[in-house]
Amino acid sequence: MNKIKPAEVEETWSWRKFAKFYIPLSLTSLLNLIWQPIGSAALSRMPLPIGSLAVWPVLSGLVFILRSPGMAFNEVVVALLGERKAVEKLRRMALGLAATTTLIHLVFAATPFSLFWFGSITGLNPNLVEIGRVGLWLALPLPALNVLQSWFQGALVFGKKTRGIPEAVAIYLISVSLLLAGGVIWGEVTGLYIGMGALCLAQGIQTIWLWHKSRQVIFPLSIKSTESDYGQR
């Protein structure tokens, strides 16, 4: 019979400690919302503005569905990172989930399902369907990036080092804004393509920063797990 694991009671948090943990998380939500008007303003100033603005929410909805398994992984990391050998197991799970969601995205983009989604389900006209299909290909890195971000963000939340999360979002906003501004100045490529490309590149930069900040949590846990295994031999 398995024994119930006793609850671990931590020390009472002071208001200062609570604010240090919570305020960065609340700022993250605010910074994420700022992207929406920036993106709309940029798309409206690039070639095919009406078409890009019409397709963007349709494309974003499909991409969000494909990214959702990666978003849920954040809570898994926070809940399980303290368990024995959790770092190795969660790392393998993150890589497997990233590969799986990317493969599913690839199947959607490379098969007639994309035609069915943009044409039959959402009712876009043929010209806009083609824009949406190209945009779906450009969004291919996003599911994997979402998994990696959840892995690193979950580690930061577990380690109570949440400051790195809004820092990463701020870096993302600066990056995507500069890339979109470059697209507006260039003015030669359909706005939706520039928008999706900028989104992927900026999220890649955001992921690198999260990885950098999360090492201070993940590396000590990995070393601790290795030492524990060595001590049991």
Q: What is the count of structural domains?
A: 1
Mean pLDDT: 89
Strand content: under 5%
Helix and strand content put the structural class at mainly alpha
How would the global form be characterised? globular
Total strands: the figure is 0
Order of helices and strands: HHHHHHHH
Instruction: Please tell me how large the radius of gyration is.
Output: 21 Å
Distance between the termini: 25 Å
Residues in helices, as a percent range: over 70%
- Low-pLDDT stretches are none
Describe the main β-sheet briefly.
none
The number of helices is 8
Describe the structure.
The protein is mainly alpha-helical and 233 residues long. The chain has 8 helices and no strands. It is globular and about 60 Å long. The chain has one domain (31-226). The chain has helices spanning 15-43, 49-80, 86-110, 113-121, 126-138, 142-158, 164-186, 191-232.
